[in-house]
Amino acid sequence: MNHDDGIKQLLKQSLPPVERNAEPERDLWPAVLRRLDADAASRRAVPWFDWALLGGLAVFVASFPATIPVFLYYL
Amino acid sequence: MPDGSSSVPGSVLHRFRQGDLDAFEALFREHQRPVYGWILRIVRNTAAAEDLTVETFWRIHRAHDRFQPEFPFGPWARRIATRAALDWLRAQRPEVELTTEMAGTLPSASQGDPGIAAEIRSKTALAFGRLPLSLRAAAILAVVEEQPHKDIAAALGITVAAVKLRVFRALRLLRKDLEQQGITP
Protein backbone atom coordinates (compact mmCIF):
# COMPACT_ATOMS: atom_id res chain seq x y z
CA MET A 1 0.00 0.00 0.00
CA ASN A 2 1.32 3.43 -0.97
CA HIS A 3 2.34 5.77 1.86
CA ASP A 4 -0.21 8.34 0.65
CA ASP A 5 -3.14 5.99 0.09
CA GLY A 6 -4.52 6.51 3.58
CA ILE A 7 -4.65 10.28 3.37
CA LYS A 8 -5.98 10.15 -0.19
CA GLN A 9 -8.80 7.89 0.96
CA LEU A 10 -9.57 10.17 3.90
CA LEU A 11 -9.63 13.19 1.61
CA LYS A 12 -12.01 11.46 -0.80
CA GLN A 13 -14.30 10.52 2.07
CA SER A 14 -14.23 14.08 3.42
CA LEU A 15 -14.82 15.73 0.05
CA PRO A 16 -16.74 13.20 -2.06
CA PRO A 17 -16.13 13.55 -5.81
CA VAL A 18 -18.68 15.37 -7.92
CA GLU A 19 -20.81 13.09 -10.06
CA ARG A 20 -19.53 12.72 -13.62
CA ASN A 21 -22.58 14.17 -15.38
CA ALA A 22 -23.26 17.09 -13.07
CA GLU A 23 -25.07 19.86 -14.90
CA PRO A 24 -26.51 23.26 -14.02
CA GLU A 25 -30.09 23.34 -12.75
CA ARG A 26 -31.07 26.03 -15.27
CA ASP A 27 -30.18 27.10 -18.77
CA LEU A 28 -27.37 29.61 -18.34
CA TRP A 29 -27.54 31.08 -21.86
CA PRO A 30 -29.96 33.91 -20.92
CA ALA A 31 -27.61 34.88 -18.07
CA VAL A 32 -24.65 34.91 -20.47
CA LEU A 33 -26.61 37.17 -22.87
CA ARG A 34 -27.53 39.52 -20.00
CA ARG A 35 -23.86 39.69 -19.02
CA LEU A 36 -22.83 40.48 -22.60
CA ASP A 37 -25.50 43.21 -22.83
CA ALA A 38 -24.41 44.75 -19.52
CA ASP A 39 -20.82 44.72 -20.73
CA ALA A 40 -21.76 46.40 -24.00
CA ALA A 41 -23.80 49.04 -22.14
CA SER A 42 -20.93 49.81 -19.78
CA ARG A 43 -18.57 50.24 -22.75
CA ARG A 44 -20.99 52.70 -24.33
CA ALA A 45 -21.35 54.76 -21.14
CA VAL A 46 -19.10 57.81 -20.78
CA PRO A 47 -16.88 57.41 -17.69
CA TRP A 48 -17.71 59.73 -14.77
CA PHE A 49 -14.22 61.22 -14.93
CA ASP A 50 -14.88 62.51 -18.45
CA TRP A 51 -18.07 64.20 -17.27
CA ALA A 52 -16.23 65.73 -14.29
CA LEU A 53 -13.49 67.04 -16.59
CA LEU A 54 -16.04 68.55 -18.94
CA GLY A 55 -17.92 70.15 -16.02
CA GLY A 56 -14.71 71.59 -14.60
CA LEU A 57 -13.77 73.02 -17.97
CA ALA A 58 -17.23 74.60 -18.39
CA VAL A 59 -17.00 76.24 -14.94
CA PHE A 60 -13.50 77.51 -15.72
CA VAL A 61 -14.54 78.98 -19.05
CA ALA A 62 -17.64 80.58 -17.51
CA SER A 63 -15.48 82.13 -14.78
CA PHE A 64 -12.77 83.36 -17.14
CA PRO A 65 -14.35 84.01 -20.57
CA ALA A 66 -11.18 85.71 -21.75
CA THR A 67 -9.49 82.29 -21.90
CA ILE A 68 -11.89 81.03 -24.61
CA PRO A 69 -9.72 82.29 -27.54
CA VAL A 70 -6.69 80.63 -25.92
CA PHE A 71 -8.54 77.27 -25.77
CA LEU A 72 -9.74 77.67 -29.36
CA TYR A 73 -6.18 78.45 -30.49
CA TYR A 74 -4.91 75.19 -28.98
CA LEU A 75 -7.75 72.99 -30.30
CA MET B 1 -14.69 17.75 -22.69
CA PRO B 2 -12.01 15.67 -20.97
CA ASP B 3 -10.26 14.87 -24.25
CA GLY B 4 -11.10 18.24 -25.76
CA SER B 5 -13.12 16.55 -28.52
CA SER B 6 -16.11 18.39 -29.92
CA SER B 7 -18.94 17.81 -32.35
CA VAL B 8 -18.87 21.48 -33.34
CA PRO B 9 -17.60 21.89 -36.94
CA GLY B 10 -14.43 23.85 -37.60
CA SER B 11 -16.35 26.57 -39.44
CA VAL B 12 -18.15 27.39 -36.17
CA LEU B 13 -14.80 27.91 -34.47
CA HIS B 14 -13.72 30.30 -37.22
CA ARG B 15 -17.00 32.21 -37.03
CA PHE B 16 -16.68 32.39 -33.24
CA ARG B 17 -13.22 33.90 -33.64
CA GLN B 18 -14.77 36.59 -35.84
CA GLY B 19 -17.30 37.41 -33.11
CA ASP B 20 -20.36 35.61 -34.52
CA LEU B 21 -22.94 35.32 -31.70
CA ASP B 22 -24.67 32.25 -33.20
CA ALA B 23 -21.35 30.42 -33.33
CA PHE B 24 -20.71 31.44 -29.73
CA GLU B 25 -24.11 30.06 -28.72
CA ALA B 26 -23.36 26.76 -30.51
CA LEU B 27 -20.10 26.48 -28.57
CA PHE B 28 -21.87 27.41 -25.34
CA ARG B 29 -24.50 24.69 -25.87
CA GLU B 30 -21.77 22.16 -26.56
CA HIS B 31 -19.49 23.08 -23.67
CA GLN B 32 -21.80 24.47 -20.98
CA ARG B 33 -22.06 21.19 -19.07
CA PRO B 34 -18.38 20.18 -19.04
CA VAL B 35 -17.31 23.71 -18.13
CA TYR B 36 -19.85 23.77 -15.29
CA GLY B 37 -18.69 20.33 -14.10
CA TRP B 38 -15.04 21.38 -14.14
CA ILE B 39 -15.76 24.55 -12.16
CA LEU B 40 -17.94 22.63 -9.69
CA ARG B 41 -15.07 20.23 -9.05
CA ILE B 42 -12.87 23.16 -8.05
CA VAL B 43 -15.26 25.41 -6.11
CA ARG B 44 -17.62 22.65 -4.79
CA ASN B 45 -20.58 25.01 -4.60
CA THR B 46 -23.43 24.62 -7.11
CA ALA B 47 -24.67 28.23 -7.03
CA ALA B 48 -21.14 29.61 -7.41
CA ALA B 49 -20.43 27.11 -10.19
CA GLU B 50 -23.42 28.40 -12.17
CA ASP B 51 -22.36 32.03 -11.72
CA LEU B 52 -18.79 31.16 -12.64
CA THR B 53 -19.92 29.30 -15.75
CA VAL B 54 -21.61 32.53 -16.88
CA GLU B 55 -18.47 34.48 -15.95
CA THR B 56 -16.31 32.00 -17.88
CA PHE B 57 -18.36 32.25 -21.06
CA TRP B 58 -18.35 36.03 -20.76
CA ARG B 59 -14.54 35.92 -20.54
CA ILE B 60 -14.48 33.49 -23.47
CA HIS B 61 -16.57 35.86 -25.57
CA ARG B 62 -14.37 38.79 -24.61
CA ALA B 63 -11.29 36.83 -25.70
CA HIS B 64 -12.80 35.48 -28.95
CA ASP B 65 -10.25 37.19 -31.17
CA ARG B 66 -7.40 35.50 -29.29
CA PHE B 67 -8.84 32.00 -29.86
CA GLN B 68 -6.89 29.88 -32.35
CA PRO B 69 -9.37 27.70 -34.30
CA GLU B 70 -6.69 25.12 -35.15
CA PHE B 71 -6.62 24.15 -31.46
CA PRO B 72 -9.55 22.49 -29.64
CA PHE B 73 -12.02 24.74 -27.85
CA GLY B 74 -12.48 22.50 -24.77
CA PRO B 75 -9.04 22.83 -23.15
CA TRP B 76 -9.00 26.58 -23.86
CA ALA B 77 -12.40 26.97 -22.18
CA ARG B 78 -11.27 24.81 -19.28
CA ARG B 79 -8.24 27.02 -18.72
CA ILE B 80 -10.37 30.16 -18.62
CA ALA B 81 -12.85 28.37 -16.33
CA THR B 82 -10.02 27.38 -13.99
CA ARG B 83 -8.83 30.98 -13.74
CA ALA B 84 -12.36 32.17 -12.97
CA ALA B 85 -12.79 29.46 -10.32
CA LEU B 86 -9.45 30.26 -8.68
CA ASP B 87 -10.27 33.99 -8.66
CA TRP B 88 -13.51 33.14 -6.85
CA LEU B 89 -11.78 30.90 -4.32
CA ARG B 90 -9.16 33.57 -3.69
CA ALA B 91 -11.96 35.98 -2.73
CA GLN B 92 -13.49 33.53 -0.23
CA ARG B 93 -12.60 33.12 3.42
CA PRO B 94 -10.82 29.75 3.65
CA GLU B 95 -12.75 28.53 6.65
CA VAL B 96 -16.12 28.72 4.86
CA GLU B 97 -15.02 27.14 1.60
CA LEU B 98 -14.87 23.42 2.09
CA THR B 99 -17.11 22.55 4.97
CA THR B 100 -18.80 19.19 5.07
CA GLU B 101 -22.18 20.95 4.92
CA MET B 102 -21.17 22.34 1.56
CA ALA B 103 -19.95 18.93 0.42
CA GLY B 104 -23.31 17.50 1.40
CA THR B 105 -25.15 19.75 -1.07
CA LEU B 106 -23.05 18.60 -4.03
CA PRO B 107 -24.25 16.11 -6.62
CA SER B 108 -21.68 13.57 -5.44
CA ALA B 109 -20.77 10.29 -7.05
CA SER B 110 -20.43 8.65 -3.62
CA GLN B 111 -21.37 9.28 -0.03
CA GLY B 112 -18.87 9.45 2.80
CA ASP B 113 -17.82 6.22 4.46
CA PRO B 114 -19.90 5.84 7.65
CA GLY B 115 -16.87 4.06 9.15
CA ILE B 116 -15.02 7.37 9.22
CA ALA B 117 -16.38 9.66 11.91
CA ALA B 118 -18.10 12.81 10.68
CA GLU B 119 -15.86 14.84 12.94
CA ILE B 120 -12.73 13.50 11.25
CA ARG B 121 -14.19 14.18 7.81
CA SER B 122 -15.09 17.70 8.88
CA LYS B 123 -11.61 18.36 10.30
CA THR B 124 -10.02 16.96 7.15
CA ALA B 125 -12.16 19.20 4.94
CA LEU B 126 -11.30 22.25 7.03
CA ALA B 127 -7.59 21.38 7.09
CA PHE B 128 -7.71 20.97 3.32
CA GLY B 129 -9.33 24.41 3.07
CA ARG B 130 -6.35 25.89 4.90
CA LEU B 131 -3.88 24.71 2.26
CA PRO B 132 -2.52 27.24 -0.26
CA LEU B 133 -4.91 27.63 -3.16
CA SER B 134 -2.45 26.42 -5.81
CA LEU B 135 -1.91 23.15 -3.93
CA ARG B 136 -5.59 22.71 -3.16
CA ALA B 137 -6.69 23.08 -6.78
CA ALA B 138 -4.17 20.50 -8.01
CA ALA B 139 -4.93 18.06 -5.19
CA ILE B 140 -8.71 18.21 -5.45
CA LEU B 141 -8.65 17.67 -9.21
CA ALA B 142 -6.04 14.91 -9.09
CA VAL B 143 -6.89 13.03 -5.90
CA VAL B 144 -10.60 13.59 -5.29
CA GLU B 145 -11.85 14.03 -8.84
CA GLU B 146 -9.24 11.73 -10.45
CA GLN B 147 -8.84 13.97 -13.48
CA PRO B 148 -5.91 13.20 -15.84
CA HIS B 149 -2.73 15.00 -14.82
CA LYS B 150 -2.24 16.39 -18.31
CA ASP B 151 -5.70 18.01 -18.25
CA ILE B 152 -4.98 19.53 -14.84
CA ALA B 153 -1.59 20.76 -16.04
CA ALA B 154 -3.14 22.40 -19.12
CA ALA B 155 -5.92 23.99 -17.06
CA LEU B 156 -3.51 25.38 -14.47
CA GLY B 157 -0.91 26.40 -17.05
CA ILE B 158 1.83 24.27 -15.48
CA THR B 159 3.68 21.04 -16.34
CA VAL B 160 2.56 17.53 -15.39
CA ALA B 161 5.61 17.29 -13.11
CA ALA B 162 4.51 20.47 -11.36
CA VAL B 163 1.02 19.01 -10.85
CA LYS B 164 2.52 15.91 -9.23
CA LEU B 165 4.72 18.06 -7.02
CA ARG B 166 1.77 20.20 -5.91
CA VAL B 167 -0.27 17.10 -5.08
CA PHE B 168 2.63 15.67 -3.11
CA ARG B 169 3.10 18.90 -1.17
CA ALA B 170 -0.64 19.23 -0.54
CA LEU B 171 -0.87 15.73 0.91
CA ARG B 172 2.22 16.26 3.03
CA LEU B 173 0.89 19.54 4.47
CA LEU B 174 -2.54 18.01 5.02
CA ARG B 175 -1.04 15.05 6.86
CA LYS B 176 1.01 17.39 9.06
CA ASP B 177 -2.04 19.52 9.90
CA LEU B 178 -4.14 16.47 10.76
CA GLU B 179 -1.38 14.94 12.89
CA GLN B 180 -1.22 18.16 14.89
CA GLN B 181 -4.93 17.66 15.59
CA GLY B 182 -4.29 14.07 16.69
CA ILE B 183 -5.61 12.47 13.50
CA THR B 184 -3.34 9.87 11.92
CA PRO B 185 -4.49 9.05 8.39
Structure description:
The complex is a heterodimer of chains A (75) and B (185). Chain A has 75 residues and is mostly helical. Chain A contains four helices and no strands. The mean pLDDT of chain A is 87. Chain B is mainly alpha-helical. Chain B has two domains: 9-92, Rna Polymerase Sigma Factor, Chain: A (Orthogonal Bundle); 97-185, Winged helix-like DNA-binding domain superfamily/Winged helix DNA-binding domain (Arc Repressor Mutant, subunit A, Orthogonal Bundle). Chain A binds chain B through residues 4, 6-26, 28-29, 31-32, 35-36, 39, and chain B through 25, 28-29, 32-33, 36-37, 40-41, 44, 46, 49-50, 53-55, 57-58, 61-62, 98, 100, 103, 106-113, 116, 120-122, 124-125, 128, 139-140, 143-146, 168, 171, 174-175, 178, 185.
CATH superfamily descriptor of the largest domain in chain B: Winged helix-like DNA-binding domain superfamily/Winged helix DNA-binding domain
- Bin the helical content of chain A: 55-70%
* Helix segment tally of chain A: 4
Net shape of chain A: elongated
Q: Based on DSSP secondary structure assignment, what is the total number of beta strands of chain A?
A: 0
- CATH-defined architecture of the largest domain in chain B: Orthogonal Bundle
Could you state the order of secondary-structure elements of chain B as H and E?
Answer: HHHHHHHHH
Overall pLDDT confidence of chain B:
87
CATH topology of the largest domain in chain B: Arc Repressor Mutant, subunit A
Enumerate the spans of chain A where pLDDT stays under 50 for 5 or more consecutive residues.
none
Distance between the termini of chain B: 34 Å
SSE order of chain A in H/E notation? HHHH
Number of helical segments with 4 or more residues of chain B: 9
Strand content of chain B: under 5%
The overall pLDDT of chain A, averaged over residues, is: 87
Query: Which shape of chain B, going by the Cα principal axes?
Result: elongated
Oligomer class: heterodimer
Structural class of chain A: mainly alpha
